[in-house]
Amino acid sequence: MLAQLTNVSLSFPDKKVLQDVSFTVYPGDRISLVGPNGAGKTSLFKILTGRLNPDAGAVSRAGGVRIGHLEQDLSDSASGHELTCMEAALEPFAGLIRLEKRLEEIAVKLGREGHASVLMEELGEAQRRFEDSGGYSFRARTEATLTGLGLPESLWDREVSGLSAGQRMRLALARILLEEHDLVLFDEPTNHLDVPAREWLEGHLKNSKVAYMVASHDRRFLDAVSEKVAHLDRANLSLYTGDYTAFRGQVERAEEEGWRRYEKSRKQERKLRRQAQDYRAWSEAGERAKRGAADKGFVSHRAAKVMKRSLVARRRMEEAAENARAEKPFEGDEIKIGFGPSRGRGLIRAEDLTIGYSPERPLAAGISFDLSAGERLAVTGPNGSGKTALLRTVLGEVQPLSGGAGVSPTARVGYFDQDHRLPARDVTALEILRGTGDETLARTVLGRMGVRRETVSKPASRLSSGERAKVLLTRLVLGDNDLLVLDEPTNHLDIETQDVLLGALEGFPGGVLFVSHDRHFVDALATKTLRLGIT
């Protein structure tokens, strides 16, 4: 056992997060932690590390256990910004670097003083410790890890303060992987990773002997790295064996069985209630017979006995009907969006397009494609290959370096960018959506997207990044658009919300041009794909 929770409960002022959760992590475990945004996954990780105390229950950790934690928030990520990227990545090997310097000092002394026995003995001992601790491979491991996570050699000498937020997150992930741990808790490790980096991380984790728990909304990644799934939902945690796809299958079968039990119980309940009504009718008939036979004692006595038996039987039937009632399985509100027809077929045309922000450094060249109503084009490629630049060039925000691209002048365009720009900071989420028409439908879609009821009345300035993304996506889906241009629409969305968005976009009659690193989302939505490579 590495860590264990026993009957742990946690509440915040506005919600219950965990209720009597019991859970054990063993050496070698490979666990995916899944659940809707806000379910309490980050809180569970903090409880496991000891940074958050539960309201009730016990937390146990093995003596001397080393727990690493990759957080979504970089504010606590350790290294000083005055270090270079490589210096920060090498910090886990500070002891080896000191030993390496000592070896160099001994070698210099030996060169000056000759082969003194004391120095030779110290050198031999230092070399053994250096080799046993991986001293001859730690630099190569560090370089391979940085490269695999999308931090190329050109960034290694750059100060951490000069890295982008995504690059700093990848650096924090690299450090966690290079440190010595018994258990690692990864909170959204695939954020800011392109597909090659995600695949590299999958391979690294599959070959690792370290136990880990991963919270991620990339189901393809979860399938690759997990052997168990811990599902956290409505304050309860359930453990399943298998990868994410196996978990979904088990949950769906359990839901189907739950509905079968519910429908069977409804039939049984109706049958028992009909029988109870029959007994009620018999008892009422007996009461009438009793009153009508006042001068015939034997009839009155018999009627009383029948009435008494029928009352007892009726109560039993009513109790049985109550006991037969099964709990109705949870179901979200069904969404039916009545899309209007798309106006026009041809929406985008690009011919021999070269894109970039300066002629000296083009990002991609020779791009040609058409997009018509009913088509959904996924733009894929590694970070830095020009995916966002292509979207902005097509929309006219950035001029092409050569060639041409444009949108049909009659097309109405909805654009979702990575900055989640809102129309105004003081309007509420609901006011942003009022222009889409059906307010009830807007509230329903927001609810299915995971936006809580009280959030719709918040000013836009107080919304989190994830809440802003969901409001904007809802506005685009419900708006009167012919073309949707979406840059990383699944960022900040949990898997359940991704499925809601996917279902809405699959029914959209216009065209969709989108960028995503989520392989399942791309495979499920795209009717064609354009892959960009670094020039």
From TrEMBL:
Q: Which residues form the ABC transporter domain?
A: 3-259, 348-534
Under the heading InterPro entries, the entry gives: AAA+_ATPase, ABC_transporter-like_ATP-bd, ABC_transporter-like_CS, ABCF_ATPase, P-loop_NTPase
Q: Which domain of life is it from?
A: Bacteria
Q: Which UniProt keywords apply?
A: ATP-binding, Nucleotide-binding
Q: Which GO terms describe its molecular function?
A: ATP binding; ATP hydrolysis activity
In terms of SUPFAM superfamilies, this protein maps to: P-loop containing nucleoside triphosphate hydrolases (SSF52540)
Q: What is the name attached to this protein's record?
A: ATP-binding cassette domain-containing protein
Protein source organism: Rubrobacter tropicus
